Each structure stands twice: as C-alpha cells, then as structure tokens.
C-alpha cells in the first residue's frame, strides 16, 4: 500500500491532544533483584542478597502508561485495588507515570493484582528470572464494587475522548461493566477500543478491537494459514461483534485491518530483525492506535502508527513506552516520501 508520510507525521503530532480513559484489570509488576551468594543449607535453593526492587505498571496499567508518555498525562484509569501495601505501590507508580487514578475503586476483600518476579545474577552471568509469584483474586466482583465502577464510568466517560477496555480476564470487566461502558460511549459519541483475549462476542458495536492472531484463531475456531483464512477470520470478527473495524496483530507477520464491505489491508512489520522483547507490545499498539483514532486517523493509518510504536518498544526489555518524537523519527527512517 502507498503511505502518505506527511499525513502520517501530521497525525502523530496530534496524538497528544486527546484525553483517554482505560477501564480494566490494573496491575503492578514488582521486579525483585539480588546477587547469588550460595546454596541454602535449609533446602537446595539459591540465597540471593537483595540489591533493589523496581515497580512497573502492568496489564491494563501498562496501556495507561503508554498513553501518558504520549499525551502528557491526559489519561485516567478505572479499576479495582485492594487495601494491601501493593495498592500503595500501584498508586505511587500511577502518580510517577502522570496517570490520574481518582476513579479507582477500593475493595478490601480483593488483592491488588501483583506479579512479583525474582531475578538473580552473579559476576559471571546475566540477570535471570528465577521465580514469579502472582497475587490476584479470582472470585467475581461483588455487586457493591461493580456498582461503584459503573458510577465512576458515568462520571468519567463524558470527560474523555476515547475509552480503552483492557481485559486480562482477572475480573474487573464484568458483563455489566462492559455493557455500560459501550452504552455510555455510544450515548456521548466516544471512541471505544477493546483489548481482550477471549469472549470477543461480548463487545457489541464497539469502535474497534485489537486481538492478536493466536487469540483470533481460538475465537474463530480455525488456524489461519494464508491470506484467505485471515480475511475469513476478520469477517467473522466483524460479523459477530458488529464493530466498526477490527485490527488483528500478527506478530512478525505485521497487522491486518478489517473494515465493512470486505475491505482488508495488510500492514508489514517495520523492524523484524530488531525484536528483543515483545512484553507489553500489545498494550502499546492498543494505546497508540486509540490515540490515533481520537486524533482523527482513519483505521489503516491508526494501525500503522500503532505498528510503528510497537516496533520501538520491542527493542527494549520489559513493559516499555515510547514518545511522539521517537515515533516521528521511526517514520522518517522507515517510510519513504
């Protein structure tokens, strides 16, 4: 496809103007580091001498962080936290990332979603992850907590230009929360983009969704082996959800945008040889894609901008973010006039 580079740059320059709301499963990644000293006499395990701990915004929180670095903090989140010390860690991380968390709902019966990764190193080796500990509550939300979320949706959605529903299937996005979010977005004429891994038929009449290829294959029930299979999968997603358009991320195969009347556009990947870590890349795509749609980009150009942003963060380790200047620089390097 022919890409208008000047148009692309103009859209990127407008990414910072819109105000975004992220609704979903908020989490904090706790990275604990230590140096190996010896094997314990109590059990055949390593003893690590703690060096430092780092907190990173994960799950839906990572999408919010990606938005914040681009639009300078015009971003709010709605989700559930506990009353544990991890809740304080998460709120502090949001504040550092310039994310508005006044719409958080506190529930003392639930754990703040935390993924603790313990990593060790010694002088002759690189740092390696040893174990991961997950903290989360798997039971459904209480009616009281769900009601508080819906109340906050009613307050927040009119104040924002676009909404991201980020579902890591930990429990925040109940059927009622999903339905109410979409209903309010329609009422106030707001863009709503879905990032979910399953049950995609629940998200009826949204603006768009951004499933990856493996999740798309699971949903449609067949393996995508060629372009025709991909077109069939995209058509089924559009038909089942009544979305205005759908973006499917295909890893090293790039992306595909599906629109009404069988319109299909394949977008190549921009730096296939420079991938170091894909952690959080999907959150980056959804965040930047939504910002681009809110800036007035048509679906294909929004997807290209999201693709370029992802090509930057996969060159870094862990959940990374990017900026308008970095995206513009990548466009100038990779896309011909």
CA(first)-CA(last) distance: 13 Å
- Total strand segments: 14
Multimeric status of the protein = single chain
What integer value in Å does the Rg equal?
20 Å
* Helix/strand class: alpha/beta
Q: What portion of residues belong to β-strands?
A: 25-35%
Note down, in words, how this protein is organized.
The chain is of the alpha/beta class. It has helices at residues 5-13, 60-71, 85-96, 143-156, 175-187, 213-220, 227-241, 281-294, 299-313, 324-334, and strands at residues 20-24, 26-39, 46-59, 75-78, 80-81, 105-106, 114-121, 128-135, 162-167, 191-196, 208-209, 245-249, 255-259, 263-267. The strands form three sheets. An eight-stranded mixed β-sheet has the order 4-1-9-10-11-12-13-14, with helices on both faces. Strands 3-2-7-8 form a four-stranded mixed β-sheet. The chain has a two-stranded parallel ribbon with strand order 5-6. Strand 13 (255-259) and strand 14 (263-267) form a beta hairpin. Residues 273-280 have low confidence and may be disordered.
